[in-house]
Amino acid sequence: MSKADAIVEAGKTAVMQNIQGTLELLRKYPPFNQMEQGHLAFLVEHCKLRFYSKGDSIIKPADGPVRYFYIVKQGQVVGERPHSAKRGTETTFEIEAGECFPLAALLGERATRTEHLAGQDTFCFLLSKDAFVQLMARSTPFRDFALRGVSSLLDLVNQQAQRRAVETLGAGHSLDMPLRGLAMRKPVSCLPATPLRAAVKHMHEAQVGSIVIVDEQSRPKGIFTLRDLREIVADTSADLDQPIAALMTQAPFYLAPDASAFDAAIAMTERHIAHVCLVESERLIGVVSERDLFSLQRVDLVHLARTIRHAGRLETLIALRDDIRRLVDHMLAQGASSTQITHIITLLNDHTVCRVIELTIEAHGDPGIPFTWLCFGSEGRREQTLHTDQDNGILFDAQDAEEAQRIRTQLLPLAHHINEALARCGFSLCKGNIMACNPELCLSTTEWRKRFAGFIREATPENLLGSSIYFDLRAVWGPTEGCERLRADLLAWVADNALFQRLMAADSLRHRPPLGRFRDFVVARRGAEKDTLDLKTEGLTPFVDGARLLALANGISEVGTLPRLRALVGKGVVDALDGAAYEEAYQLIQQTRLQLHQTLARADQAFSNRIDPDTLNHLDRRILRESFRQAQRLQTSLTLRYQL
Amino acid sequence: MRFFPWGNRSVTPELTLEQGRRLDSLRALRPREDLDIREGRMVVVDVETTGLNMQKDRVLSIGAVTIEHGAIDLGQCFECTLRREALPGASTLIHGLGPEALADGDEPSDALLAFLDYLGESPLLAFHADFDQRMLTRAFKEDLGYSFQHPFLDIAELAPLLHPDALPPRAGLDDWIAYFGLGVGQRHHASADALVSAELVLMLFNHARRWGTQRYAELGDQCRHWRRSCSAPGF
User: Fold this and answer.
1) Which of A235, A318, A354, B52 is such that its CA lies 20 to 30 A from the CA of B202?
2) How confident is the model at residue A532 (pLDDT cuts 50, 70, 90)?
3) According to the model, what pLDDT value does residue B11 have?
């Protein structure tokens, strides 16, 4: 019997205890917790355990192609790269217990680009490359993880969120769901010549609220709903035998069946419609109604938007704020993405702002001067959460300075009432007085241009701060042309001024992601904020600032952070993979922030953006850390681009 | 096969022909002491016994872990429970091996042959090595008629030698585990104890290399020296 055979023989019962212990240890972490027992045992049996004292080099570029897959058993591994601009080295990542490295180098059959050092006394499991390859072939979760790295863990988070949603609702239902799956029934349709009476009979029999009028080729020509019928019946002279074509709403709104439930919800909310046709290759294949979308939700987005838009009194709007809060709560529980949620909050807030302006004008009299209500900051970027300050202003047209002064005097009292009314609706008054009732923010187009040009010409700290707020402007109410012209000027000026760009870049580096050298997160050390970090200023702001700067410098007129990133990728300014990583990271931090707000609200605690990372579970914590790492990468790319 | 005794029953324990052949081939092993701790194969062992009396008590289970090329090889762990007459006593509470587990164990001679086979020519390490060494030597003698000569290094000596001011003298395995912040699965299980001892050894070897000590035998000499200086009068 050879020695190896003898070991196998002896090992039949013997290996169990220590292998078992290691299995249990690994099973605390993804992806190992998803792997089959047999595959995990294969992994453990092929592992070596090695110790590295703090500061020891584990792998370095000079070692040549990587030979092992490493799993940290205990301790911490840090990555160090020579600092790009300054002397010395910078920590590019920290790897903790349960995490693995260096996947990219191992799969790419190359040396690592970053030296991996033990940040503390550390034990690592080493799996030989051969065993790693065999395991990839055998275990699907392991292969997914190896090929997609942390992204595959993101799916895990989404799965968890959806599972939670299923638990809440008793059925799988997500706003990401394609519409194809929602429109279960054959669409109810008729030809244009059908008499109204016959069409309504058809609707009644099928028990639906709408009928789509199609031509011989099934191409949708119009839609007729119960709401339309109500109007016709109210008009006693209506002829019930006239063809439906004369009464239908022409050219109905439609989406492709692959569009998501979220797309339909947004379309319904924006357009005040209750039905969306599904069209594939020009043919009608289904209809999705408001009821289909929200059958499982207690608060109905479309209905809510409509109620806001038609609210007759300010008190109604104030009361509706609770419904908005409930809706957000519900969407979050359903696993809606943070982008979807902030988008919906902004949409509903826009409706509220418009209605508040209209009601205020009704109550205090129309000044008779056309004006545009502008919003700035997160509202401008459509990234609002439930806790939001007012950041608004007014733009109007005036011939000269004198007329501008006269109009301002007329508009300011109205602006004041609007700001007050918005405050009563839950939009707290801006501490920095960035509000339309501030004479400095109730300006003519010429005055706004002058103000913006000044920001760019004289980049003082106050002006840089100002540009980070005002340059994210958007028209909420009133004519939009003035606002767009202003933006076009702004883009031209910034693109022309390399110095301003550089100063803006330097300014954006003030908010550093909270990642440190020896602890994974850097948290406040003392005071009430001890052990916490700020998800907004430390996590989101780097992305927001970076995207704004690059967008303005490259003539991109989008205002939201994610649309800006996508446009930058489209223009080739940002690498597609980087763009996707930034987007993912930004969304995750925002999601964590929304969940924090929700938790605080439930516990009746004061609103805050500060979180103690130790309160997160292992997976969330790790993903949050990866997200901060992306913010760090974005900042590093800015330092290179602008040679800071 | 069991009915063919090997040699004189009164002097040498009863072995089957097959066992005898295996033992003969293993007698040729020449345990090595002269190896580099960064490369050579060493075995960290822990035995559980019926008690602490080295004359009377018996080995119940053996757990061992291999260190080779400076790493613990999880594919080369050894563990066995020896079939013994049930002697439920106080130590059952410590080692956790109940009469059933012991009755399920391997024939002691088979278990020891397997262990010797696993060990090969590798030198050993153990925490309070004197105890493990004596218990194993007696078991080898009684159950196999084999004179166990493999060298041992005592981790309980190595640790204070390399970290003189870390802990008070005569600190136990638990103290060192706590001092180095090691995680441990199930203490007082031969395998788990061997593994955590082996982790401790990796840490100590890492330290020893910084001192410039790279050979197993050299560490043995230093331990002996350390032991003498400890027992020196007035020390």
Assistant:
1) B52
2) confident
3) 47
Q: CA A245, A247, A250, A254 torsion: positive or negative?
A: negative
Residue A555 CA to residue A168 CA, distance in Å, equals 45
* CA–CA–CA angle B32, B35, B41 (5° rounding): 75
**Would strands A372-375 and A392-396 be described as parallel, antiparallel, or unpaired?**
antiparallel
In the numeric block, the tokens 């031509």 are attached to A215
ipTM over 0.85: yes
Q: At what angle do helices A541-553 and A481-496 cross, to 10 degrees?
A: 80
Name the DSSP letter for residue A181.
G
In whole angstroms, what is the distance from residue B85 CA to residue B95 CA? 16
Residue A279 belongs to what domain range? 179-294
Within a domain: residue A6?
Answer: no
Residues of B in Cβ contact (< 8 Å) with A17:
63, 77, 79, 185-186, 189, 191-192
CATH assignment of the domain containing B140: 3.30.420.10
Write down the residue that tokens 């009314």 correspond to.
A421
Q: Are A112 and A78 in contact (CB under 8 A)?
A: no
Separation CA A71–CA A630 (nearest Å): 22
Compare CB distances from B114 to A10, A18, A50 and report the shortest one's residue: A10
Answer for the pair B50, B87: CB distance below 8 angstroms, yes or no: yes
Give contacts of A42 with chain B, Cβ < 8 Å: none
Is A154 part of a structural domain of the chain? Answer: no
> Residue A28: is its pLDDT beyond 50?
yes
Q: Decide which of A439, A468, A496 is a domain's last residue.
A: A496
Residue A566 is predicted with a pLDDT of 94
Q: Looking at the domain assignment, is residue A589 inside a domain?
A: yes
Q: Which residue of A has its CA nearest to B195?
A: A18
Distance set, CA A514 to CA A114, A635, B22 (Å): 21, 13, 63
